[in-house]
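User: quick one, fold this
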Amino acid sequence: MLDKKRVKEFYGLGYNASEIANFLAVKRETVKKCIQRNFRNDISLFEQHIKNREEIKLKREVWKVRECKRAIDSTNNKYIGNAQLINWNRQSYKTNKSGRLVFDTSRGAIPGDLPKSYRQVCY
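Assistant:
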């Protein structure tokens, strides 16, 4: 049997019928009917639901952005790091009098994929 108090609680927190049905392990239609029959005249509950629903949507958008950044960062970590790139291509660089790395222009043009942190030291 469906617990109306829990449905009201979840509905007030901003969850829709599908999400409440998943939480309570019941059919979505059962939850929808419960909301329609028992809470349709409760204006304050409806306003609370709408307000909290917007917050849930905002949190989901923030989560999506965070997940995208995490995916990009993890993809970037799969490739060679800046220092390792310099170590592996050491023959393309020489050290000037002050000890800074300088790209050896006799070996060709400065590569486009050179890390930004080393791009500024190339002359």
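User: anything notable?
Assistant: The chain has six helices and two strands.
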